[in-house]
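Our platform keeps sequence and structure together, in a single record for each protein. Nothing more is needed to write down the fold, since each code stands for a local backbone conformation. An entry from our holdings is shown next, in its original layout:
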Amino acid sequence: MNDHVPCSRLRVLCCALALALDGARIGRAADADGPAAPPASPPPDASSAPAAPPAPASYWPMLVGAQYTFIDQNQSSLRSPYRGPLSLDPLGDTQATNTIGFYGGWAPVNWGQLYLDVERFDGAGVSGATGLAGLTNGDVIREGASGIKKEFYIARLFTRFMLPLGDAVETVERGKDQLPGTEAATRLELKVGRMAVLDDFDQNRYAGDPRTEFLNWSLWANSAYDYAANTRGYTNGVVLGYISPDWSLKYGAYMMPLRANFQTLDYQTELAHGQNLELRLSPWSSGTVVRLLGYLNTARMGIYQDALAIAAAQHTVPNIAADDHNGRHKYGFGINAEQPLADNGDTGLFLRSGWDDGKTETFAFTEVDQEISFGGQLSGIHWDRRDDRFGLAVAGEGLSAWHRQYLAAGGCGFLLCDGRLNYGHEQIFESYYHFEYDWPDKPGPVRWQLGPDFQYIVNPGYNRDRGPVHFWALRLHVEY
């Protein structure tokens, strides 16, 4: 990796930072126009809490935030006796990505909220963001399909309704798509609109945000979870949930893309939809959280076995896209656990494992049929840097028998196509560090995070004939 960021990238970085800070000033000005915020109060005692959460302040907008993320990543050269159309570049590559977003929320009543997020992505992933199941930059999912304009787009636009089921309340801090204040600790929730599936499913405190934690796709999500999304990672849907301190149950139904990895969603929802069910368990005094996930996708999918049979009969290379038909299914399961260890939970461990049936083509996320990952986060309080974080994790991934035969015969997915395959599990190691600084005060309105990231991958694209390969990255994240 180069020892410095090219000048052109620094200019892009500075311009984007100026835009993000302009958004922050706009947010503070909007706050100044409204009534003064009430003084902070200690968390309420559940035994003496009011019957329902109080209505938040009445000015509009209630929440204005902004974020900017810059990731400059270098891929090393690698052993490559042959190369297909979607292989990693054997000579290596260096690419930068920039994402900027503005986030707004409004609560006209204490039981209803409205959110609008607008984002823009620029740049590209190394090797065209192909050649791996566990892609190494989590922000390139915002890039979208080839040819999509680099412009601002609506990422989220949804309403959230809450029905309290008890007197106890919990304090909620300000955050992206989260208004500050209090909410009923036990409640029914309904969300409707455009959103990201991972806003509500497969969350994890230590491995769930590529802008501040692990960058690799297989570490910030269950990579065998082929969740409904367009190529930028968003979809339309509805989520219904029962939430309580000890457990919750959520059901989500979403629109699927029209074809694999398409930006356009399929509005024939009777033929194409994703259904998701997740049980969260957290009754233990140790702070342990366990999430059990199941999903069923219905879409215009191809079947690996059928594509292989057609190719054998016609003496051609298999093409999964030529075998697609409406109403086909894919199902899978996942388990996700987090275990706080110390430092008020800022030091802790996580574990994920996922599986899907591997019969139909990968449709929305990435080409993984079995996955397991394990890692942790260490708070910088141990070296007098309370807000800094150090993370370390590993992941292993596999394919179903039909999926690996398809790739070995020269078939292509939308991420993998080496032209042939000497199968082996893709193995991933990642470590990151981020320095955190609040400005201009501490705690300040603008949070700055800067740090390096290193990844090492064995059998890239499940191919023993290629690699190993390593990736260095420098990440800057600013949020208001």
About this structure: The chain has one domain: 7-38+58-479.
